[in-house]
Amino acid sequence: MNLEYLLYQYLLKHNRAEVPGFGVFGLTKESAKIDAENSIIIPPKETIAFEYDLSAYDSQLAKFIAEEIDSDISIVQMDLKSEVAKWFQKLQADNFLDLENLGQFQLDGQNKVVRITDSNSDVFGFEEVDLQQLKTLRSKKTPTEENYTFNKGVIWAFIGVVIVGCATLFFFGDQELIFGKSSQIPTKKIIKKAEPKKTVAIPKIDSTKIDSIKPTTNAKIQKTNR
User: Fold this and answer.
1) Cβ of 85: how many Cβ atoms within 10 Å?
2) Over the stretch 158-168, which tens digit does the pLDDT of each residue have?
3) How many CB atoms lie within 10 A of CB 166?
4) What pLDDT score was predicted for residue 160?
5) Fewer Cβ within 10 Å of end Cβ, the chain: N or C?
6) Mean pLDDT: which of 15-29, 115-129, 140-154, 186-200 is highest?
7) Torsion of CA 2, 4, 10, 16, to 10 degrees
8) What are the residues facing 106 on neighbouring strands?
9) CB-CB contact of 106 with 95 (8 Å)
10) pLDDT for 175-190, tens place per residue?
11) Does residue 22 contact residue 54 with C-beta atoms inside 8 Å?
12) pLDDT over 60 at 204, yes or no
């Protein structure tokens, strides 16, 4: 069981936790503040306080841990007692105890556990910002920064001249100089040939047959006249 982590998570939710046989932890949070008088921005702060109290007892912490690790509360209470005993052993041996997210502890002259106060350990890794110092640094530019600003201005001026020149040639100049002559490939015109007219062949009549028919016709006419 990672008692340090679970205890810190309980503090984030409830801001106060009693550890049986050890003491009471308290958590307070402060938002970032601006100290106008000293021109300083104070970062957000999280402060953990501790009060040594061997008689402290609250089952709420044990219930929370039991729910988090899905265990029986009686088992959790036994584990809590075991972890606290290890903390005291560490303090008796080294007179120093470092609990993650909770701070550092030691024994005082009366053999009581006290938390070592460190104002820089509770600010989430941020530092105070001195606005006056920032203003001074901003007003002083190094030669490198000035050269960089000058070179950047020259480059943008050159790019602008190139763009304007290209636009002028495109709209007012000879476009064949810019793009070259047209590369269109000549195409041959397809001429459709007129289809020849179909001629209808008229059958020729044999003249001999015509001559042979005429007398017969005349004979028939004469016969009828009679």
Assistant:
1) 12
2) 576 567 566 55
3) 12
4) 60
5) C
6) 15-29
7) 150
8) 114
9) yes
10) 554 455 544 544 455 5
11) yes
12) no
CB 52 within 8 A of CB 113: yes
Per-residue confidence band for 104, with pLDDT thresholds at 50, 70 and 90: very high
pLDDT of residue 56: 86
The encoded tokens of residue 61 equal 């912490």
The single-letter DSSP state of residue 98 is E
Q: Tokens at residue 63, please? A: 């219930």
Paired tokens of 78: 């036994």
Beta bridge partner(s), residue 85: none
DSSP class of residue 185 equals: P
Other CB atoms closer than 10 Å to residue 99's CB: what's the count? 19
Cβ atoms of 54 and 20 closer than 8 Å: no
Q: CA 114 to CA 64: how far, in whole Å?
A: 25
